[in-house]
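User: Structure tokens for this complex, please. No commentary.
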Amino acid sequence: MEKNNKDYRLREVKCPSGFTWANVKAELRAIWEANVKAWKIDFAYPVSFVRQLISPVVFMIPYLLYGLVLIGGTYSENLAQLVGTGDVVAFIFTGYIMMGFIGTAVWAMGFSMRREQWFGTLEAIYVTPASRLGQVLGMALHSTVHQGMGTLIQAVFIYVTFGLGLNMSGILPALLIFALMLFALYGFGIVIAAVSMILKEGWIVSDSFYSIMTILSPVAYPLTVLPTLAQQASAIFPTAPALIGMRTFLIYDYVPEVVGNVFLHLLALGIVWIVFGVFVFHLTDKYVRKKGILKKY
Amino acid sequence: MMQSAYEQSSVRSNFFVVWNEFVKNMKFLMAYPIIFVFWAVFPIFWFIPFILQGQAFVGGLESASFAQIAGTEDYISFIVIGAVLNSYVNTLLYGMGESIRREAVQGTLDYVFAAPCNKAYVLIGKALSESVSSTIFAVSQLTISVLLFGVTFTLEVMFPVFFIVILLILGLYGLSLVLAAVSLMYKQSHDVSETIGYFFYIFSPVRYPIESLPSWAQIIGKLIPLTYALIIVRSIMLLGTSLTEMYWEIFALLIIDAVLIAAGFYMFNWMEEKTKRSGTISHH
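Assistant:
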């Protein structure tokens, strides 16, 4: 039976506007559904899903084996002189946890909009009465949990293969630091998502940022081995202070290479990156719609 | 013996196919200069953390412990050679499968397959362009490494090294033909490429000597062409070994190349026939 225009008009849903509890709930639901969609796509490709789960182990092994061959064991005298602890396994493991989450921000979040473009669903998402940021944050939620699972596998692997001596009493403050770092990384990821909407070859931007952040984050070495300028630049990304803070709580005898309040540093970075990210995203959102370049790639 | 006119024209037209496929792929690469610059420069950023890690753990530019297993104390040159040769894997392994897939996405794969020529020459053209671009990227990375990290090599060793790189490329051709075949049949060869890439990364001595792996992992590593290429090139460049002293490794590399190329051509022809029959060539 054909419906007339009046029937359609009766079923119209008003676009949410303003900061109300109902709108916040609706946005949260949109984020959740974007997350569910990402999981469904993951499970549709089981080989890819498993490969991504074990990738944190695969990419950490070279750092570990190389480190062990360099010093002929698991204790480095030079590392102990630099940061108080010579336990290279604990040092690399705590550092390498970050690598995956940098990938979460730069690749998963940064490419969430571009992926919809490839699927041909970006325009459909754009006409829904929900914030486009919901798509990015939904992907962030999915990717954080996915990466968390990979990190758990990584921890089990390291514990079984090399033995892992961490100070478990420091796990709560370390988790708090980790949460603050994620908050700031999400802001950074939103910036990348915005940039990838404009640039045709956005993967180059993502890869470049990933590489630079990896070097500026003290993943497998203390910050002090970097040149002074690079040490200063590392302060604008959340991974360096987060790593130093987490190692302080998790590794016995660790002496932080940079003095300062990690919690306040990360909180400030989180606020700045989120505000900056949302601002850039909204500007880009307006720009691509005005120019009509949404579908171009 | 003189060639017949038909044979002469056949050789010319096959060369024409290879050359034009080569030119087409190079034009694609040059159309995106930022991608060209990226591959020429950015892989260096991927191994800088290993150099910094070495300095933090050892406190200098040489490691006696490293020499006990790797034969050289100079871990920076070890890492640089590993990374540069591994860049051939990155470009060739993913490049061939992706170039077939790109034809499908662009809607030109049907035309390529309908062309009255042997498809092997199309693939040779693609492989040739990937090899040339990989070599340009490798030379660029090596030059930057020499300037940035003070890595020193004599030009004299470059000829035997170039010979080994050609042998490595041949093995990777075989493997990428297999991937191209998978791409034709299953459309998404990306996961297979990534998984093979993982094997290369873990079981080949890219970042560490193969002797540091458990014995079962060393056996897997010795089935990979990159392993032999790395062992030979490092022996020549870092330990001053002559090419003739490495005859066993060269022989092993040749055997692996032959097996991979034969398997690659067999699989590609088989998958091509299968996709033609099923009418799914242009699907993606």
